[in-house]
Amino acid sequence: MTTSAPVRGAAPPQIESEFRAAWIATVANIDWPSKPGLSVKRQKQEFVDLLDAAVDLNLNAVVLQVRPACDAIYRSELEPWSSVLSGRMGVAPDPAYDPLEFAVAEAHRRGLQLHAWFNPYRASHPSYKGELSSDHVSERLPNSVVEYGSYLWLDPSDADAAKHSLDVILDVVRRYDIDGVHFDDYFYPYPITQTAEDANNGLEGGVAKSGKVPFPDDRSWNAYVASTDAGERLARPDWRRQSINNFVRDVYHGVKREKPHVLFGISPFGIWRPGHPASVVGFDAYAELYADSKLWLEEGWVDYFTPQLYWPVRSSGQSYPVLLEWWTRQNPHGRPIWPGLFTSKVRQSPRGKDWGASEIVEQVQITQAFDDAGGNVHFSMKALSQNYGGVADALREGPYRTPALPPNCGALGGASAPPAQPTATLDAGRIRLQPDAAPWLWAVQTRDASGWTTRVLPGATESVEVANGAQEVVITAVDRLGQRSVPARVVPQ
Fold first, then answer.
1. What is the largest CA-CA distance in the chain?
2. Can you give the pLDDT at residue 350?
3. Which of 11, 138, 447, 484 is most exposed, with minimal Cβ within 10 Å?
4. How would you write 36-82 as a 3-class SS string?
5. Is 347 or 487 the better-scoring residue by pLDDT?
6. What is the number of alpha carbons within 13 Å of residue 442 lying toward its C-beta?
7. If you average pLDDT over residues 331-347, what whole number do you get?
8. Is 474 helix (H, G, I), strand (E, B) or coil?
9. First vs last C-alpha separation in the chain
């Protein structure tokens, strides 16, 4: 029997620290389940298949959409079961199970973080043609919900709407062992354009006009005007941005009060404002979505930031590396920057304007070369699991060919110390890991005549087989915030 000892002499190669994740979208059954009405057995198998594909690609996290449109992919007393599960809103899985509880357990069993992705304001999606359930927010809080095009939307400046969404998010934080809370780019909705025909129907004299349909928040705006002195009153666009800012701030602080180790991240539209930096042109999310995303980063109201940089490296008006560099400079608190990539734009048969897999590979490599960026999130998991255009193969053979540990977010998660140094014994060709020392992950590095190999294993792993010819094994314990222990060395005899 051989016991572990501190590492001395030639050290193994440094293990990469990189957030490698993919979004798993449930809205409109984009990624999971593949269609509504599947059996529970099939739903579970499809999700496990996605997780296994993530592990095979050396990802270390998934971002699961748990609230697509004021509905729930989990048991909730606040919102109805999502229609993407059964095909009908409010209908629970049969036989009963909790998809989020299942998803967290299966992800953690594989050493994957699971971040819960919420849409804070969207209240219905046109992909669902059925009736809304009696416990939907449009029935519970009818004055807080407005119709905008083919969608229902919580009014972001309505106090009851904000409280409801905050309650929903914190309820999940309390009840589930998630690793993060995540928002995408939907705040006030993307503007709807009114057609000339639509305008004709509502204008005196039949004068045809077209343009953006205003968001119908007159009720909350008028209440604000009535309750605020004229000299202190914000302009309407600033009032809308303030409502979003306050909500982001409250979510951040609420999550930290409940569970400091749960990370809060936002994935806003990748351009803050055109002209920032000077070469950038495009949609103005600050003016149109009322999303002052730069402020959230500057104020430290996020633990990580995932701007959706969905443009090519060589785009003249929205260059991926130019935008990435700009975002890293708006970061006085040094929050992790993990950009979102439009991996689904790589099609199975590239043609026309579709990207090749090489575009995504190059973007990942650019991110890896940035000192102030630490990973990427891919939209979406289906593109990777189905290997669109060979993109999964290209990543596996290229920038993801070796495992990576999650970045160290210990300070963000309130951790006081890294894990203790592992205690391990070698017995009958296996390294036995002490159960009471089980961390989040084990990093196991083995040296033989050909050099070093690295494996990253779930913390529940109790023993590791030592291959014939192994000359030494170095083991590092890693906690769920990416903090690493002092490594230990085992020398087979």
1. 94
2. 53
3. 11
4. CCCCHHHHHHHHHHHHHHHHHCCCCEEEEEEECCCCECCCCCCCCEC
5. 487
6. 27
7. 96
8. strand
9. 9
